[in-house]
Design goal:
Radius of gyration: 17 Å
Helix content: 25-40%
Strand order of the largest sheet: 2-1-3
Number of helices: 2
C-alpha cells in the first residue's frame, strides 16, 4: 500500500510579494480590474482614496479577463507606469 500525503510538493513555485513602499507620497497607483461584478468599482474607489492621500495623479485603471492571466503588455504597462497595483476579485 502506498500512502500519499496531502501536503506534498506544489506544482508551481511560490511567488514573493514586492517589498512595500515606506512612503506613499507621490506614489503612482494602478488598478488591474478583472471585470468581475463590483471589482472595478471597489478597487477604483480605494485607489482614488489612496491617490488623494498620497497626493498622486488619478489611478491608472487597466482590465483583464478574470479567467486568464493578464496579458504581458498589461503587466509591462503597470511595471512602467505605477508604483502600486490593486488587484483582486469581487462578486
Amino acid at each position: 500500500m502506498r500512502i500519499h500525503r496531502p501536503d506534498g510538493p506544489i506544482a508551481q513555485p511560490v511567488h514573493r510579494l514586492a517589498p512595500s513602499r515606506r512612503v506613499m507620497a507621490g506614489a503612482r497607483i494602478g488598478v488591474l480590474d478583472n471585470r468581475k461584478p463590483n471589482a472595478g468599482l471597489l478597487m477604483s474607489a480605494v485607489a482614488s482614496h489612496l491617490a488623494d492621500r498620497a497626493g498622486s495623479a488619478e489611478p491608472l485603471v487597466l482590465t483583464k479577463n478574470a479567467a486568464r492571466p493578464a496579458p504581458a503588455e498589461v503587466i509591462d504597462q503597470l511595471q512602467r507606469e505605477v508604483d502600486l497595483v490593486l488587484t483582486g476579485s469581487a462578486d
